[in-house]
Each structure stands twice: as C-alpha cells, then as structure tokens.
C-alpha cells in the first residue's frame, strides 16, 4: 500500500510536542479507515518530539517524518506538510490533538457524498433546520458565517480539504494565528463546503498554546473580515455586506456598553480593539 496513492494524507505539524505527540499518532493509527498516509513535519523541535515519532515510523510504513531545515512557524509548516501529500484529501491532526477511531471514516464518507465540494468542516453546532452533512455554496457559506451560526472560526483540526482545492487557493497565508480563518474565506469563494457534526475529533487545550495570547490577534481577525467582505469577489451582494458591517459595529458598541455597565475591563478593551478597525469604513 505504501507505493499506492492513499485516499487521505493526514498532516501532523509538530514543534516541541513530546508530551502529546504519541497520543496524537496513536489516535491516527487506530482509525477504522486505513487508506491513509501520516505525514509529520517537525519544525526544529529541541525536545524528544522527533525521537518519539520515529518509534512509530519504524513500526508502520504509513508514517513518514520530515524535519524542516529551519523553523518555519505554524502555517508555513502546514503548507510544508501539504507539499509532501499524495492523497486526494488533506486532514490536519495537530501533534497535541486527537481524532476518534471512526472520525476519518465519517469524514471521507460524508465528503464523498458531495463530489463538487472542495472542503469540509466538522465539530459544528447542530443546525435546527436540517441534519448534517449538507453542502453550502460560496454565497450560502458566507451567509452562514456572517448572518448565521458561524463557520470560519473553526481550526484546521476541524477541516478536511481536497488537495486540488488547497493547491488552487495557494494554501495558508503566513498570518500568525489567523491563517486558517483567512483561508476559509478564500476556499469559500471558490468551492462549496460540506458541514459535519461533532464527535469526529478532539481539541486539546493546554497552557503552551499560543491561543492563550488571543488579545494581540483581535484586530487581525477584524481586518481579515473587512478585507474579504469588501472584495469584489465576495459572494455576498453589496446590500448584504453593508448590513453585515453595520451589524458588526452595533455588536461591538453593545459589547463596550455592556462592559462598562458590568465593570468588565477586558470586555471593553476587546471590543474597542475590534471597533477601531471600522472607523474608516
């Protein structure tokens, strides 16, 4: 099987994850769906991450390890992992996360129901109008994100992407923390997306994650929103875009007012940081 093209390339980027990577690899290898390769790209770890991964590679030929010549950072390393992939689908499982044994099987089966889709997202809250999985067109995806329950906030762990779609949009941009949020906008401009339920993957939370420093990225997320809403290629019509921007402003001002009433300094500060992005729009 190692000489054949696998259906799925599971991509695991790693940097100093000796505490967690064994659990992540074991979860992948326990998958009931077996037609995959596991590509691990280490970003110059200085702990035992690579040594632990090599123990698995020595026992299972589907596990392939690459060590970057120098530290690339989060999203460039994700792109590097994708460059080695041979599968039809790309499935990110970070070195500190976990995929349930049935997860890969469910992802592939649901994606195969919608051949025209370019990508999918799981771990979404229940939709009260229809059961998962279902597909959204570019315009529907933007509406679902900006006027509905939300969509583009999901992390790479929740995604499964056709390799040809990933290549068509050029992969992740080199934006700290928000590279996934940004790419979901680009993917949704070109390809339909499949929405899928919880119970497929598990996201680990721990103190070593950069997300703990969220405040310095608040402005970045708002800038990305405006960029793609104001583009000519935005799937939403101009009237809808104006409504979304107006609603965003209203919610941010409401958050500031609520923070002042409740003496919540952090709530006031977070919303002020976001609101200043809209001052010239």
CATH architecture of the largest domain: Alpha-Beta Complex
Q: Major beta sheet, specifics?
A: 8 strands, mixed
Rg, alpha carbons: 20 Å
SSE string = EHEHEHEEHEEHEHHEEHHH
- Strand order, main sheet: write it out: 3-2-1-4-8-6-9-7
Distance between the termini: 55 Å
What do you see in this structure?
The radius of gyration is 20 Å and the shape is globular. The chain folds into two domains: 8-204, Spore Coat Polysaccharide Biosynthesis Protein SpsA, Chain A, CATH 3.90.550.10; 214-278. It is built from ten helices and ten strands. It is an alpha/beta fold and 281 residues long. It has helices at residues 21-29, 49-57, 74-83, 103-112, 138-146, 163-169, 179-190, 218-230, 238-261, 265-275; strands spanning 8-14, 36-42, 63-67, 89-92, 98-99, 119-121, 134-136, 159-162, 193-195, 201-202. α7 (179-190) runs parallel beside α8, α8 (218-230) runs parallel beside α10 (265-275) and α9 runs antiparallel to α10.
Summarize, please:
The protein is an alpha/beta fold and 281 residues long.
How do the helices and strands line up, and which of them pair or pack?
Blueprint: E1 8-14, H1 21-29, E2 36-42, H2 49-57, E3 63-67, H3 74-83, E4 89-92, E5 98-99, H4 103-112, E6 119-121, E7 134-136, H5 138-146, E8 159-162, H6 163-169, H7 179-190, E9 193-195, E10 201-202, H8 218-230, H9 238-261, H10 265-275
Parallel strand pairs: 1-2, 1-4, 2-3, 6-9
Antiparallel strand pairs: 4-8, 5-10, 6-8, 7-9
Helix pairs in contact: 5-7, 7-8, 8-10, 9-10
């Amino acid at each position: 099987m190692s000489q054949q093209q696998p259906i799925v390339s599971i991509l695991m980027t790693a940097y100093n994850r000796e505490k967690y990577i064994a659990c992540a690899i074991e979860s992948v290898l326990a998958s009931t769906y077996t037609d995959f390769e596991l590509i691990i790209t280490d970003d110059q770890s200085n702990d035992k991450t690579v040594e632990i991964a090599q123990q698995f590679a020595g026992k299972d030929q589907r596990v392939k390890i690459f060590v970057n010549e120098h530290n690339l950072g989060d999203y460039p390393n994700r792109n590097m992992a994708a460059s080695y992939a041979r599968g039809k689908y790309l499935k990110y499982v970070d070195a500190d996360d976990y995929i349930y044994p049935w997860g890969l099987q469910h992802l592939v089966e649901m994606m195969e129901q919608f051949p025209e889709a370019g990508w999918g997202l799981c771990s979404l809250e229940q939709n009260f109008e229809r059961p998962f999985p279902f597909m959204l067109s570019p315009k529907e995806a933007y509406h679902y994100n900006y006027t509905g329950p939300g969509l583009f906030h999901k992390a790479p762990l929740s995604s499964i992407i056709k390799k040809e779609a990933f290549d068509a949009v050029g992969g992740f941009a080199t934006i700290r923390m928000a590279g996934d949020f940004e790419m979901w906008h680009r993917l949704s401009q070109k390809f339909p997306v499949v929405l899928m339920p919880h119970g497929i993957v598990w996201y680990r939370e721990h103190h070593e994650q950069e997300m703990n420093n969220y405040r310095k990225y608040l402005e970045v997320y708002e800038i990305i929103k405006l960029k793609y809403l104001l583009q000519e290629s935005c799937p939403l019509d101009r009237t809808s875009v104006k409504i979304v921007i107006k609603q965003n402003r209203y919610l941010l001002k409401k958050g500031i007012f609520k923070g002042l009433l409740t003496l919540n300094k952090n709530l006031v500060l977070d919303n002020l940081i976001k609101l200043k992005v809209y001052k010239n729009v």
